[in-house]
Amino acid sequence: MGDRNGLDCKPGYGPIAALSLLAALTCPETARAQAVLVGASADFDPDLGCPILAVEFAEPLELLVQSGAEASSQIDFVLREETEDGEGLELDAPESIPAPSSSDLGVTSIGLEQSGADLVLGISFARAVITNATMSSDGLRLSVAVADAGDEGECLASLTGEGPEPDGPEPDGTALSEPETDADPAETAGDEPAVDEDDIETDFADARAAITAEDYDLAIRLLTRILNAPENSRSAEARELLGVVRERNEQFAQAEAEYLLYLERYPDSEGAVRVRQRLDALTTARGAPPEPLREVAEADSARPEPAEAEEEEEEEEEDVPVTPDLEQPEPPEVTDRRRADAPEAEEDEREEEEETFPKLEYSGSVDSTYFFRQGTTRFTEFDTSRRSVDDFVLQNSLVTSLSTIGSYETEDYLLSWRVAGAFEIDFDDEEENFRFSRLYLDYDQKGTDLSLRFGRHLVRSGGVFDRFDGATLSWQHQEDISSHFQIGSPVDSVRDSLFAFDRLFYGISVDFAEIYPDTDLTIYAAEQRVGSLVDRRTVGFELEYEGEWFSADAAVDYDIYFDRLNYARVSGTHIFEDRSTITLSLDFVQSPTLALSNAEQGQLGMTLDDLRDSFTLSELRQLALDRTTASRSATLTYFRPLNETWLLNMDATIFDTEGNPASGGVAEIPAPGKDYYASIGVFGSGVFSETDVVSASARYADTSSSTLVLADASYRFEPTQQWRLRPRLRLGHRDLKNTGGTEIFAIPSLNVDYEIRDNTMLELEIGGRLSRTETSTTRDNSTESYAFIGIRQDF
Predict the structure, then answer these.
(1) pLDDT tens-digit series, residues 221-254
(2) Distance in angstroms (rounded) separating the CA atoms of residues 152 and 224
(3) Closest residue by Cα to residue 550 from 522, 576, 570, 517
(4) Which of 307, 310, 486, 640 could disulfide-link 580, Cβ–Cβ 3.0 to 4.6 Å?
(5) Which of 262 and 305 is assigned the larger pLDDT?
(6) What whole-number distance in Å separates Cα of residue 165 and Cα of residue 178?
(7) Is the peptide bond before 358 cis (omega within 30 degrees of 0)?
(8) Phi and psi dihedrals of 199, rounded to 5?
(9) Is residue 369 helix, strand or coil?
(10) What is the distance between the alpha carbons of residues 191 and 184, in angstroms, rounded to a whole number?
(11) Which among 117, 64, 59, 114 is positioned nearest to 91, based on CA atoms?
(12) Which H or E run includes 283?
């Protein structure tokens, strides 16, 4: 299902009231569970020279593997969130979010669906691409670098490891793309011999002719080949012209990268003024277009050449009209704000351009969905032959929702926001539930190193393990050191009222990037209070290493108030040459997070202030420890690409959970012992058609209450461009240890998406659950059926 995040305070006015941030702030009520997908945006990585697709999630996920390494227009990423019971995150229904409007990315759709215990993020592109994905340390943002498979530029070379990889200008003035002196020129120039000046002039003339003929793909290949050669007489001109051609080809992010490389390599050339103007126009989208690109010979008039060469150049320019009439291409409608580090030009070297501030940009989706779920149970008691039938309705509700991101920019500051929430009307209970999963504003004062985020936001680092209502102030001390100060109230559930501030949290963290090659470190200290009482006081660190073939992370959170370890994790992943991966994770977790307020559990609604009348502070601390459960787990995961179509995944997990002693009038909870989980599955993309997806898995779980064997299979296909269908079937058998009975069940479902028109989607799912549970004395036959239908509008 689409992103069920919305904003509404009055029944019947969901889409209208959802657009009002003020109205949202006045309705801090409850609501249903949130969607996993939050939104997607376009970005750019200047180090890779690649446009970036950033996908954000409401819950932290782990990137397990991505499908294939060959060029494809459909890329799938396998994700997982390990829940406390080890079962993994289960979606209510498939989800989708709007694709960002960026011609550099060419994304047509983004969807998330279930595949056994895992989630599969499917991204469709308008062309064949090569991608490389990384997950943020908090698991909330997936960054996908995208390169056109037909390109020969820096981005593709960075992702495939082939061709030159410019690392910036060398002190001796060598070109960015010049191979190292001890490298084989054939290897560094795409397995071709080193190019001499005659070949360079031929390629340059052919490139200009291709531009005149508007064959931009050919021009890009020819100009890239010139730049892949050692520094030569056409390097500067080729770099500038490549940026212009990419603009005309609507590859705006890559054009920006070429301009930045030009200014970094040739900051004092005559062409730098013109390139700087083009870069400013591209990144700020302001005023009238800059002057047309002049003749490439004129652009390099400062370079001395023999008279014969000048005559030949003039004759060539008479025969081949190339670039004088190239106009500045229009920038994309929604551009990404990236600060260019190009040198500032003198005022008398710039053309006066009219600013277009303020700027307002936004995108998102609104959807409204009706849910209905009902069931019937037929109960038989063998001894008395008594039979009964019970009909029930589990859900009968309408959900109106909104998810949006946007920004407002002036000459002095940038203000951006994110809203994700939903309003639900329950027709049976006559209740109206409302909630926010995210609602925050970001303020960035231009010309400073400070930024501020205020509202409800999700943080998974620096001693914050979930959402909180409050503010985060960030300061970038220098390029590799930043600090963050946070103050607010923790949010246990998205159903919590906004800005309740029943508990006050404040803390500081410092991030050190590249403290050692490929290694980042965060250290932090934080405190949380309930009234005058200390709730928790913690210190900790997070360490992350990301190498080419091995990655690892470690985290420790220690509560110095309780003098106890609250959380610890060590994880390592090894990547083999055949692209298979193996990951081992070891975790220690206190649940809920160790805090004095845990003493309230089992006390019939009494608060800490109430309990202080009956218990001393020392006794309250012991009650809190007694109500906190420690667990340890070890997970081993293995992924292997069988070929370019199929992936194999296997995993095994052991959970060991402690019990809770009797104290404060609360009964003892015995230790359940060890739980065991294992699964094996295959995932296929493009099996029978270019866009279909096949998933099949088997899962085994042996817990203190039951033993489960589950088979899960689904098939997603697109009979036409407008229709997408996904039938799914789950079959299971469960042995019930407490009653000595057995349960068998089947869960069939069919999900249908229909694109009514651009940015408007109709979504439907029907399904049910058939089960039979038998013990030595009873039989229980249960039938459930459900359906939901909704419409989503992207904007």
Answers:
(1) 788 878 877 788 888 888 888 888 888 877 777 7
(2) 7
(3) 576
(4) 640
(5) 262
(6) 9
(7) yes
(8) -65, -40
(9) strand
(10) 9
(11) 114
(12) helix 270-284
